[in-house]
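Sequence in, structure out. Go.
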Amino acid sequence: MKIIEINKSIERGTFNLQSNTTVLLKNGVTVSASLNVDDFIADESIFKDTCGNELGRSLFYAKDCENITLLGEPNSIIDGKGYSWERGASKRPSLLRFVNCKYVTLKNLSLRNSPCWCVHLQNCEHVNIEGLSIISDSNSNNDGIDIDGCSFVTVDGCYIENGDDAVVIKSTKNVLSKDVTIRNCKLKTLGAGLKIGTETVGDIFNVKFIDNVIIKANGCAIKIVPTDGSNVDGVCVKNVVAKEVTGPIFVANGTRMRKYYTDQIKNTFSSISNIIIDNFVAEKVYNRSEEVVDKAKGVVFFSGTKQNRIQNVTVKNCIFNMPSLLSPDTDFTVEEMSGQYPEYYCLGTAPAYGFYVRHTDNFTEENNAFNIDKKDVRKKIVLEDVNTLRRVLIK
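Output:
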């Protein structure tokens, strides 16, 4: 194993890492990203995301490698200088990117001010991420950790404070993602706490989001939104506290069917199955707007499509402290999810203040409590085209 110690602060373009290498950032060192886009490697793995950004450049990069470790000593920093890049520019680099790699460890790193996504893992296996501190809201598309077509990934004990989704599981290629666990993390984000989507070509199986705290999420706490052909099967959200969120849970599949690489496409619409939400507490559901109607959009939302219904959902032992809707003349028509960008606020105002469930088979809700600040004009639960409802106790 080759050990590379970075013992003085530097500014540069891409570190192109090789197999069997450990990189150690020594105490007090700052590694800063160059502001010249030509200093970063651009190869055939570059693609455009749903926002039109050309993604693939990064400060630390490895491709087709194995046994790579990045370690940070106290007071060491990886700084992307995101505030110095043109906001929203297409070719902004990430901080860390690994493509087709195996046995990757990222531990005790402090990541700051990424110009774009902070950590992007693409088509990797056996990745351990532990003790990362990510603070990055200095540009747009500042996702914290993007897990893209990866298997056997653990994210443990991280703090993420960022300007877009905190932890994202996606699939830009038709590659299976499976066995991903996010635990013991604290998340504060202008996007979603956990998001599955929106780039979703390959299937995604067995995701666990357990023992986490979402301090704040301006884009919903939990979002599961496959729209490009992915089959999402097996998601467990357990022992999660969401302190301030615009919506607690939004689960919906659509029919957008975008592709990100010319040879990577699905011919069937996305589906969702086997979702468990257990012991989830939304302490305060709020809205960025003061409009009463907008407040009411953050319900617990499950909606399949007529083509592909959601299968097998269980929500149990949860507490949701919700805002209320006072206007009785609101239009409660909820649009069908189709090819639009999948956001809860794009579909209209739900006719329920608690659960809104549509195009779903085998829905179980057990021992859940909804607390509202004032009397609401809507029902607690509204079901549309739901087969096999099991209700054990409603508080």
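Check: The longest helix spans residues 292-295. The mean pLDDT is 92.
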